Amino acid sequence: VDMTSIVKMREKTRREWEARHGVKLTFMPFIAKALMQGVRTKPICNASVVGDGIQYHRNINIGIAVALDWGLIVPVVKGAENLSFVGLQRAISDLGERARNKKLVPDEVQGGTITITNPGIFGPQFGTPIIMQPQVAILGMGGIFKEPVVVTDEDGNDSIAVRHIIRLVLGYDHRVVDGADADQFMVAVRDYLQNFNEDIG
Fold first, then answer.
1. Is 121 a residue whose pLDDT tops 90?
2. What distance in Å separates the CA atoms of residue 56 and residue 29, rounded to the nearest whole number?
3. From the CB of residue 142, how many other CB atoms can be counted at a distance below 10 Å?
4. Angle at CA of residue 33, ends 67 and 108, nearest 5°
5. Which whole number is the average pLDDT over 75-86?
6. 183 is annotated as an active-site residue
7. How far is residue 109's CA from residue 74's CA, in Å, rounded to a whole number?
8. What average pLDDT does the chain have?
9. Among residues 69, 153, 158, 174, which one is catalytic?
10. Proportion of the chain above pLDDT 90, given as a percent
11. Residue 191: which H helix or E strand, with range?
12. Measuring CA to CA, which residue among 172, 108, 95, 113 is closest to residue 140?
């Protein structure tokens, strides 16, 4: 996914945005918003396996994997679809900070309907995320790297440009989600990020 426009917007507005809102501006809320666009396109990715049935969820409760010294913990941003961009960043930052300080309560690590994990924070371009059952999908974020990319202008002329690229990987339960659904989910995620035009507050 070409993240160049988001990277440039973040670089341009980051200092003022953080001063105004009192919280760091990370890439996670952009990815979380894109994930929610994917869910709107393919709601089956926001479901759970319950016994022999499939339960669709009205709310999008996003688990955000946080690496600690002793392993991973996955606090949950509940009702993420109802949060503004700023509210989403605040919730993600708050849960991550309290996870690292061992101040989460049990309810905050339960009830997730879909998860994001970020192996890219340690440098890899991508990893293979494994779903957290009974959830049926997990989105893995790689790091953002500058890469040469062929770009085509309006006249059809090709050139090579340096772009900021992220690799996203969707792990999913094939009993519930088939490849076509997963692919369409990821296309919606990609298109949202590459055409991002929302107000970030």
1. no
2. 23
3. 20
4. 45
5. 98
6. no
7. 6
8. 96
9. 174
10. 93
11. helix 179-194
12. 172
- 64 - beta bridge partners? 116
Is 0.90 topped by the overall pTM? yes
Q: What are phi and psi of 169, to 5 degrees?
A: -130, 135
The vertex-184 CA angle with 56 and 148, nearest 5°, equals: 135
Closest CA to 35 of 114, 146, 95: 114
- Chain Cα centroid distance, residue 15: 22
d(CA 28, CA 32): 6
| Number of residues that this document lists for the chain | 201
Sign (positive or negative) of CA dihedral 49, 50, 56, 57: negative
Catalytic status, residue 173:
no
What tokens does 186 get? 């990821």
| C-alpha to C-alpha distance for 198 and 99, rounded to whole angstroms | 29
pLDDT at res. 180: 97
Q: What is the pLDDT of residue 162?
A: 98
User: Amino acid identity, residue 153?
Assistant: D
Q: Write down the catalytic residue from 178, 183, 191, 199.
A: 178
Distance (Å, rounded) from C-alpha 189 to C-alpha 192? 5
Reported as a single tens digit per residue, the pLDDT across 138-183 is 999 999 999 999 999 999 999 999 999 999 999 999 999 999 999 9
Q: What is the DSSP letter of 101?
A: T
Cis peptide leading into residue 134 (ω within 30°): yes
